[in-house]
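Give me the fold.
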Amino acid sequence: MLEIVSQITLVTLGVALLIAFIRLVKGPTLPDRIVAMDLFGVLVVGIIVVLAGSTGVQATLDAAIVIALIGFVGTIAYATYVERGSAQ
């Protein structure tokens, strides 16, 4: 049962990843692309966590934590860039 739920979750996250990638490429403005990139990072972390749960390999959770931290810092950096760019 857990295997079926994991497969359904991975497919759903994969479809969401594809939609986020389309928004990242087609985003009409920079803030749209920033939000899509943040969502992309969150979805990748979700995929890694589901894979860690289904395979039982706990070491991949470290990679998920690192990706989440890098995504957070990247989002803050982009937000600062947009804020300073619009103020000038």
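The mean pLDDT is 90.
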